[in-house]
Amino acid sequence: MSLRIKIAKDYAEMSKLAADLIIDLLNKKPTAVLGLATGSTPLGLYEELVRRHRAGHDFSQVTTFNLDEYYNLDHEHPASYHHYMHEHLFQYLNIPSDHTNIPDGATSDPAEECRSYEAKIAAAGGIDLQILGIGINGHIGFNEPGTPFGSTTSLVNLAPATIEANSRFFERKDDVPQQALSMGIRSIMNCRGIILLANGESKANAIAAAVEGPVTEELPASVLQLHPDCTLILDRKAAAKLTHSRC
Ligand code: F6R
Asked: Which of 62, 148, 172, 177 has the most CB atoms less than 10 A away?
């Protein structure tokens, strides 16, 4: 059980390597269930998947589950992850809309929404391949430092560092929601395969701690050291603080 690490020369190569792994899986299993992330990191991957679709790849049998969504934000809000997924991916691919799943952050009953989200993942047979980004504080999904490793999908509080980092997507910092619905650490660890993407120097400390530090709830991504099939695809800047030599 050790993390596989691929170091790409730049963001474009990181994105292509991730797309290759997804397409390899879909060639073997066209009905695969993919776990998807939002944020800046996977934008290049999504552009690459759109290119692969235009070049002929069929996504019609794929099912997707997103990691998280802001709580109390309309689906139409430009910073919502519903909007993001439509804008950057779903409008371009031929995944049937009833095969795409994102936690409903506009729900009036978050506890029930979280229960039913876990049930939907189970009914789909679990997630074959989960794409993750990483927060500068080591969060995965919106599981902030201190989240129990046994957590499942739940309503979570965002850390001040996350609110600060995500304020770039909102007009004012005060507009950033303070809570989100997020798949939990156990939900992520239950995925059969995981790809974590990271680029840029702002992620270098979190990556070094996640890969070479102790496995601790204080650094959520460190739990991935315990996953049987997890690949990190990093650009050189995100990999810069890894101390062991890597090929
Ligand atoms: C997004 C998510 C978050 C992001 C992380 C990095 O669905 O779950 O964990 O992956 O905050 O965000 P970016 O890619 O914007 O640096």
From this structure: 62
H helix intervals, 55-109: 81-85
Query: What does pTM read for this prediction?
Result: 0.97
Report the separation in Å between the CA atom of 204 and the middle of ligand 1, taken as the mean of its atom positions. Answer: 14
What residue's CA is closest to ligand 1, atom 1?
A: 38
Q: Which numeric CATH code is attached to 4-235? A: 3.40.50.1360
Alpha carbons 19 and 106: distance in angstroms, whole number:
31
What pLDDT digit, counting tens, does each position of 184-221 carry?
A: 999 999 999 999 999 999 999 999 999 999 999 999 99
> Where are the chain's structural domains?
4-235
Question: pLDDT for 152-196, tens place per residue?
Answer: 999 999 999 999 988 998 998 889 999 999 999 999 999 999 999
Please give the Cα distance from 106 to 119 (Å, whole number): 19
CB distance 153 to ligand 1 below 6 Å: no
Look up residue 109 and give its amino acid.
D
